[in-house]
Write a structure and sequence with these properties.
Length: 282
Amino acid sequence: MPIRIANDLPVKKILEEENIFVMDEDRAMSQDIRPLEVVILNLMPLKEDTELQLFRSLANTPLQINISLIRTGTYEPKNVARKHLERFYTTFEQIKEHRFDGMIITGAPVEKLDFEKVEYWKELTEIMDWSEKNVTSTLHICWGAQAGLYYHYGINKEPLKEKLFGVFEHSVVHKGSILFRGFDDVFLVPHSRHTTVTRQAIEAVPALKILAESREAGVYAVSTDGGRQIFITGHSEYDTRTLEQEYLRDKAQGLPIRPPKNYYPNDDDSLKPLCLWRSSAN
């Protein structure tokens, strides 16, 4: 079924070329249906890439979805055109009187900072407070998951000895989880992070359940009872080339970076990577 997005959103053309059902605003107005209302707080620097990645998966639901994009009002993003932000994004102040079926809080490249030192931390905590009463279910991704676990449950992130970077095997540990219904015994997830949250810290909070994890990458999915809050530590939404883009960026900047694990065929970074996580991401 379709996702409803603005008629002139740049990623709309790409989605249509991929045969993903996108409904523009004009056609949606004629539909006699109660769509799901989903708001995305996009904290990633390359906002259009993240829009495309999330929209691909959201389009796989059998329900119609209205998507609202919001950004921080207290921090001005530097890697996206101001015109794009002004046309397609609103701020929290503009939507806080509304209620939503779902919310996605993305990751952000600030994980090496203490949470309180992030420029928009106060605004983010206000949004997370608001989501508890105004959103049916909130999905937190990567740093967004770490931020949510820290703010709501006092679980702090811990630094890793080296960047967790690659595609890793995972398994479902909570077999009754609706979120993972129908999953294979082993599924793959990309990760790209310098910090982690430990199983021990999560298990110390009775309100939280670990749903899936990886021997190498650690805890992957955590949920409260009923799925009101879901925390995902990896990047299942990533495109085939996203890890490669990050790898080449860091390499060009002279940063200490190894090729992503289990990503290139035979670990040869001259070969084209394969996307082996799309079905589980959806």
